[in-house]
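Final report, results section. Input specification for complex C-07:
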Amino acid sequence: MEMIMLFFVFVMAAFLGFELIAKVPSQLHTPLMSGTNAISGITIVGALAVCAIQATGTLGMILAFVAIVFATINVVGGYMVTDRMLGMFKKKGK
Amino acid sequence: MTTMILAQETAAAVPATVINLAYIVSCVLFIFGIKRLGKTETARSGNFLSALGMLIAVIAVFFDADVMKSWNTQDWMQNGYLWCFGGIALGAVIGAVWAKKVKMTGMPELVALFNGFGGLASLLVAWSEFVKLGPDGAPVSHALTADNAVSEVSLYLTILIGAITFTGSVLAWGKLSEKISGRPFLFAGQQVVNALIVLVALGAMVVYLFPGLVPAGDPATVQTVALYTGIVVSLIMGITVVLPIGGGDMPVVISLLNSLSGLAAAMAGFVINNNVLVVAGCLVGASGVILTVIMCKAMNRSIGNLLFSGFGAADSGSSKKAGTGAEPKAVSVEDAYLVLEAARSVVFIPGYGMAVAQAQHVVKELAAKLEENGAEVNFAIHPVAGRMPGHMNVLLAEADVPYEQLKTMDEINPLMPMQDVAIVIGANDVVNPAAATDKSSPIYGMPIIKANEARTVFVLKRGKGKGFSGIENELFTLQNTRMIYGDAKATISALSGEFGKE
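Structure output:
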């Protein structure tokens, strides 16, 4: 049942995603891409959960640790670089 | 000891419902964030909201009842929290330094690389889940049951998609930063090799799910072998998919990989049964698909056509005749200045060449001088100019060009016949009239910026060779076109220098 709920959520999110992005002006494509790229680092939450829950497995722990490092680079770097880019978009006369 | 007791008390105080409510809050923030990212005025706050959503999700997972048990582990080697904070600290420092240091011209490759890291992280989450040991220290069984069917399928898919995203993005990063050749790479029998790889990946999936199909060996070992085969094959698949794609097609590839990294995260959500991963990953996946479609439309190509035929590599011989024997006419900077000085309207058409020459700042300078001189200045941006979606917009924004001056292809094309001068800076295919007229041209049907309709066209070009795609450009030989050869940055500086002389 829980899996069905997750799948339901997945399908709804897909439609929502399509609707949200459909009318973005082309000049925002890069920030949009790097911004959503940072969001895909959400896998960090999975990495943290897996790492902490690992009961005794050393290999699992190492894999999860590396996952956390890379996901954090993705998240932190992605948001900062997007912010840097968006900070440069200016209106005339400012 | 005090922390331990404290943690246990808090664990009891934060039920799963509260954690899930926190996840809902982060999902809402992601959705609002993406929505606000779609408008120039609100984009920055949108990015901030989505970052806030991420922070909430990360904090929430630490209060998860299962995760909190980790505090009680005496042995530091197995204290999950220690590893978690260590990993976050390390990743945050690397990511922050990288984001601060990167030059704007290096943005496409950085986005590609970060994207690859996201894919790798999802792959590792699934792998870690596979080798997880139960509380008794024995490996957790991955034998297929009615209850775990979805998560087992997702586990394999996470690994497949994550691995393709990882190696594909790293290869794209290499091509974009010119660490390896950006030219399409084709070899005989490529299609056969690709088909074989896909077959092996799918075969390994079937064996992973139904280890009973292999009579010899115990099911757990068979599953392990199948999964590791899957990892290796998927890593190779990422390479073989991106290898034949040329630099000019990179905007499409980056959007596609972006979508895949989101999908990998969503799949990982199914593996560990976490809704925030599913929602956020799926939002990214969907948005990436849309961007990919926009990019494909801008090139008049289908995704299949793009992935399975090396652009320009096979076709470069066919349209040579378009040259009609006419030679492009060159013009000196001084003569070009005389035309520009008299111009009432000027439109710049930048391409990847502007990024390579790092010419965005001098272009802005020249634009300012032209405006002082009374001309109306605009910038015409083709959707696939450069190496990632919106690449030119970012570079010109860096040089303080107000975004009102950046016109899309659809806005500028009707105005083109009224323009006195069009200055093409390191762009080629996106202004090639053959795309509209020559049916034999490999880019036939691709929408272009109609530079050829301006009264005078200046084309800034490094040398007399053909552009990236290797396609002859008849714009260069038109009556109203003059070529200015040399480094774009030097040429533009010289032009604005002429304005200073008066």
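The two ends of chain B are 80 Å apart (CA to CA). Chain B has a mean pLDDT of 84. This concludes the modelling results for the funded period.
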